[in-house]
Design goal:
With about 180 residues, the protein is mainly beta. Helices cover about 5% and strands about 30% of the residues. The protein is built from one helix and nine strands; from the N terminus they run ββββββββαβ. The strands form two sheets. The protein has a six-stranded mixed β-sheet. A three-stranded antiparallel β-sheet has the order 2-3-6, with no helix packed on it. β4 and β5 form a beta hairpin. The longest helix has 11 residues. The mean pLDDT is about 95.
Length: about 180
């Protein structure tokens, strides 16, 4: 039996940019997303920290995207931008509820659940493993441009033209 065809990752068709490092205390690249970050369990955004971003970086953006969602367009779980350049870590829960730990000035847009926060993994039962792509973008301007009413797609469009670098971690989660 052949391996099922996987949907492309979010940046497969973007121009190459500098790579830097993002890590998490909560999961490892290629590992399983813990229950704390699953919608029905903890629904908490993970801790993320980053380093080695390119010179000229003026702010950061963070997103979480599931390219394997059965929608034809993937599923945006998290999108936040205008994170000041001196912030190189978000604590666990920064994207949840009252945004404790999210820096002043950062802008959170609605995810595909329709809420303006982190929405955890929730693949349909029996749909196989889904990949959750956590990306930190190094941005060439302090303010990306969109406001809190933008969609993650509009944020992604702007990042396509203003990202100096990207760092990503991918975890999987499956609902049997």
């Amino acid at each position: 039996m052949s391996e099922p065809k996987r949907r492309p990752l979010p940046h497969d068709f973007h121009p190459p940019v500098a790579e830097f490092t993002v890590t998490s205390d909560d999961f490892t690249n290629g590992g399983v997303l813990p229950d704390a970050h699953v919608f029905a369990s903890g629904n908490t955004s993970p801790q993320l920290s980053w380093s080695g971003f390119p010179d000229g970086t003026k702010s950061f953006a963070v997103s979480c995207y599931d390219p394997d969602a059965p929608t034809g367009s993937g599923f945006w779980h998290w999108s936040v931008f205008d994170i000041p350049v001196d912030v190189t870590e978000l604590p666990a829960g920064a994207g949840t509820g009252a945004f404790k730990g999210l820096p002043a000035g950062a802008i959170h847009v609605r995810n595909d659940y329709g809420t303006r926060d982190f929405g955890g993994a929730a693949p349909p039962p029996g749909d196989g493993p889904h990949r959750y792509v956590f990306t930190v973008y190094a941005v060439d301007q302090e303010k990306l441009g969109p406001d809190a009413d933008a969609t993650p797609a509009v944020v992604g469009f702007n990042l396509r033209f203003h990202a100096l670098g990207r760092a990503q971690l991918i975890a999987t989660y499956e609902h049997p």
